[in-house]
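Appendix B. Chain record.
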Amino acid sequence: MAGRLWSMGESAVNYARDLVLPRVESTGGPIPAAPAPQHSNSFTEATASEPLIMQPSNSLTAPDINDTPAVGGSDALWHPQMEHPDWQGDTLPSNWFSWRSLWAFTGPGALMSIAYIDPGNLESDLQAGAQTGYTILWVLLWSTVMGYFMQMLSAKLGVATGQHLAELCRKEYPFWTRHVLWIMAEIAIIGSDIQEVIGSAIAIQLLSLGHIPLWGGVVITAVDAFFFLLLDRLGVRRLEAFFAVLITIMAVTFGYMFVDAAPPVGTILESLAIPRLPEKDVKVAVGIVGAVIMPHNLYLHSALVQSRDLTGRHNSRKQEAMRYFSIESAGALIVSLFINVFIMAVFAKGFFGKDIPDIGLANAGHYLGKSFGTPVMYIWALGLLAAGQSSTMTGTYTGQFVMQGYLDLKVSPWLRILITRSVALVPTLLVVFITSTPNKLDVLNQWLNILQSVQLVFAVLPLLVLTSSERVMGKIFVNSTLTNITASAMAALVVGINCYLVWVNVDGQVQAHPKIIIGVAVTVVAYLAFTAWLVILPVTESRRRKHDAVHAAAEETDSKTPLLQQD
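Structure tokens predicted for this chain:
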């Protein structure tokens, strides 16, 4: 069974890698030079193309005023040293791999993977384990594989263009469309931040034996926004090392819980390998998909890959960077998958089939202490604190990139952090004061997971549209037909999941309050209409550009044709 599971996982990773990575032919011979990818301003303006140039930054924070690098450590922008600095052109040589280069590119995947093990995911895991046992572990596995596919599209966008997703959306979409996308991204970030801050506050409350209230934990968590800026000033590699330590804490603590609970490994492997979905577990499975893939993480990853200096490199170098990013991202997501499996398995072993009230993030520590002993409760709290702290930091990063990319704000990093942190903390404090009871917090977290799923399509569709454009990506990095088909199927799946979630969660409310059916209907129609617009806009503009190009070529031909001389 273990061999079968390993084979399935390896095949899935290879399939996703082959779909997303540029199509290259390995060779050891000389490599011709190639032009940089071309890019024009927007879907709505047929302007002359201009090459994209990757602008180096001094840290992971968004570019400062007039793109002047902020003050930072000497290694704030990491300059990978290549084993073969003489490579040029479009084709990646057969001897491209080296452990030294892999180490140089390792880091962005760790920060990206934190969104897969944030408090929202942990609550989804523990509820799935307590309610369904081990049955839908396969959903967790394939959601992670789907997430890997999307993350590689995001990384490829950043490497190929030198700009992140929010910047390109500002340049490519019309005014009102990009502002709607910006609002959706901010809503997703705020929703995620509320979960993360509440998770940290619950952990602090557990570790302090209840002496620190939830609102006190929220205030304490706010301090890390400025602490991470200090780390950012020390350099990218130190910041990445800090996040690696937090991930290690989660892996060790939740791994200890797994070993201590001793769930049946054979049943776990079987559930990962063999899909089964009882009708009663459909809602929980859909919630897992919504919790695993976070919309703001697609913005983040396209920016994180630019922490490596790829300025002026040939396409073969960018292909090499993508290969290394794909390896380190796969490794980071495998670690996140293990952590999620640990959580689901522990709660399946301890609480599935038992007559207990609904279990959630707020009361999970209490039930763990009663079932497995007080030390396990503290170990759970320590892992939850690491998850909450790390995810709030990456959420702050994402807020900066989104705000700078969509609005092109020219403000200092400190002010950007103050703005983005306040936008998330103010509603979080309000939520904690209003819904201070555990069951209300758990219901809130479930709705926030649904919110993330609903918002996902507003990041996936622009990402798919941009990576499918040869004008934006260049011939080497543009998506293949198979990649576009796969990504489109995933986007359709997300829309279907969202419609199902709305139906399941609103149906009871509509029956109790029939008057809200109008508001629900209007919201659903607007959601589907905007989703369709994001797909139709680039198609119609592409056809218009082709028509304009043909018309311009015909006019040029006519102008060069000599006039017939009259007799």
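Further analysis of this model is presented in Appendix C.
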